[in-house]
Amino acid sequence: MANPEFIHAARLMNGISVPLERRILAWLAARMPASIGPDHLTALGFVAMIGAGACYWLAGSHPFALLGVVVCLAVNWFGDSLDGTVARARRRERPRYGFYVDHVLDMFGSFFLLGGLALSGFMTPLVALGLLAAYVMLTTEVYLATYCLASFRLSFFKLGPTELRVVLAVGTLVLFINPGASAFGGRFLLFDVGAVVAMCGIVVALVTSTVRHTIDLYRAERLPRG
Description:
There is one protein chain. By secondary structure, the chain is mainly alpha-helical. It has a single domain (10-220), classed as CDP-alcohol phosphotransferase transmembrane (TM) domain (Four Helix Bundle (Hemerythrin (Met), subunit A), Up-down Bundle), CATH 1.20.120.1760. The chain contains seven helices and four strands, in the order E-H-H-H-H-H-E-H-E-E-H. The strands form two sheets. It has a two-stranded parallel sheet. The termini are far apart.
C-alpha cells in the first residue's frame, strides 16, 4: 500500500476553555501511567458516551440516572481530550489512524447519546434526529475542509467540544428541577428548545463555513482565462 507523506492539518481551536484545558491536559498527560496509552483513552471516551446515552434512556423512568449522564460526560472529556495529548507528549503519534478512529467513534457516540435522549422522553425523537442530522452535516463539512485545506476547525463561535459538554451537563442537572421550558407563549420540553437553538447555531456555522471555504478554494484554484 502506498504511504504518501502526510500533511498535518492546522488545528483551529478558539473555545473559551482552551487555554485552561491545555494546561490541565498537559499536567494529566505527564502523570499518566505508562501502561495507559492513547487507544485506551479513546476507548474510554467512547464507552463513556455510550454510557451517557444509556443513562438518559434509564432516566426516563429513574431520574437519578441523570447524575450518571454528568459523570459519563466528564469521563468522556477525560478520554476524548487526553488521548491526543498523551500521544504527542510521548511522541507516539499516528496522525491518520488517530484522526480516523477518534472521529469515527465520535460519530457513533453522538448516535448513542442522541438515541438515548430520544428514548428518554426528555427530547422528542424527531428533534433528536434533526439535531443528529445537523451535527453530521457540520462535521462532514469540517472533515472535507480538513482534507482540502489542511485546516481542522474544532470550535465555532468560541464553543468547542468541552464547552458543549459543560452546557449539556448543566442542562441535564436542570432537568431535575424542571424538564419543561416556556417559549413563544407555549410550553415545550427543555431539551427540545435547547436542540432547536443548537440546530440554528449549527446551520449558521455550516453556511458561513461552507461559503468561506468555497471562496478560499476558488481563489486557490483559479482557472486561466481563455
